[in-house]
Design brief:
About 40% of the residues lie in helices and about 20% in strands. The protein has nine helices and twelve strands. The protein has helices at about 15-25, 45-50, 65-80, 100-110, 175-180, 190-200, 230-245, 250-270, 275-290; strands at about 5-10, 35-40, 60, 85-90, 95, 115-120, 125-130, 135, 145, 160, 170, 205-215. Strands 1, 2, 3, 4, 5, 6, 7, 10, 11 and 12 form a ten-stranded mixed beta sheet that branches. It has a two-stranded antiparallel sheet with strand order 8-9.
């Protein structure tokens, strides 16, 4: 029998995206999977009515918004308790190719990988790559996205990376038992980078399976890319990440690099007219430094 895979997704005030995601799950050809929706205390929409369209879907309703890390941790523990061999974390603003799980689980088993990711494309631009993992600098801890150097259309075999995004991340039971859960101090963003760094420290193997495909509507839940909410949480989490992992002489290089990156971000947002996002970004940096 094929390994049991639990597909986990979070819902927070975005029933439309969640419904579309569940429709794509219904087309999956993998023979042994279950879908779990974790609702992070949404304020709008009759989620039970939506799920009635998908009676096999399991549901957990949190009593507060626990963010990505906290919400997924609830689901991961639920899935492990019910015998999951693999857990696939997916944003609810994504769509899955029908054979995605077949390709992804097959690649993880064949490569003996602890974490695996499909090739993730941009929703609306189906041939444009959004993420196929990344390599991490040993000095700055920054992740260089692989799509800048690779043509995914020419790739067939899985390849090893240091980082995959939580937007579409397959975790083996062995990985969770070795690495643990997400660090819930990361409310949104960088929890996946933190997890992958911890996994690599534990000797876990991380791969991308380019033949497995999914599509992502970027930052749809919080207003889109470069929205004030997206910029705030990204800035806050970035400071938390580097404060957690950087030590010693590397601080000097990281501070120089991150300061230059912050100046570049502020300039880009200003020139593109996102002044509210500039204020939110700076506030996120400030709050991160204070915590």
């Amino acid at each position: 029998m094929s390994p049991l895979v639990y597909i986990l997704t979070l819902n927070w005030n975005n029933l439309s995206a969640t419904t579309d995601f569940l429709r794509s799950c219904a087309t999956l050809t993998y023979p042994n999977f279950r879908v779990l929706v974790i609702d992070n205390a949404s304020e709008t929409g009759p989620l039970d009515v939506v799920l009635a369209q998908f009676p096999a879907t399991e549901l957990i309703v949190n009593d507060s918004n626990k963010g990505f890390a906290g919400g997924m941790n609830v689901g991961i523990q639920y899935a492990l308790h019910r015998g999951a061999d693999f857990i696939f974390l997916a944003n609810n603003d994504t769509l899955l190719a029908p054979d995605m799980l077949d390709q992804l689980v097959g690649a993880a088993i064949e490569c003996k990988a602890d974490l695996a990711s499909p090739a993730i494309y941009c929703l609306g631009l189906p041939d444009r790559i959004w993420s196929i993992g990344g390599r991490r600098s040993l000095v700055t801890l920054e992740v260089a996205q692989c799509y800048r150097r690779l043509d995914v259309s020419e790739l067939q075999e899985p390849f090893v990376v240091d980082y995959v995004t939580g937007c579409g991340m397959l975790l083996s039971r062995r990985c969770v038992e070795k690495v643990g859960l997400f660090d819930e101090r990361f409310f949104m963003y960088y929890e996946d980078s933190d997890y992958c760094l911890r996994a690599r420290t534990e000797g876990c193997k991380i791969i991308v399976a380019p033949c497995a495909r999914m599509w992502h509507h970027i930052a749809a839940t919080i207003g889109g890319s470069n929205s004030p909410a997206e910029r705030y949480h990204m800035a806050l989490a970035s400071v938390q990440f580097f404060k957690k992992h950087v030590c010693g002489w590397r601080w000097f290089i990281v501070i120089l690099y991150r300061t230059a990156s912050a100046c570049k971000t502020v300039l880009r947002l200003t020139l593109s007219g996102h002044r509210a996002s500039v204020c939110a970004y700076l506030r996120g940096l400030q709050d991160g430094l204070r915590r």
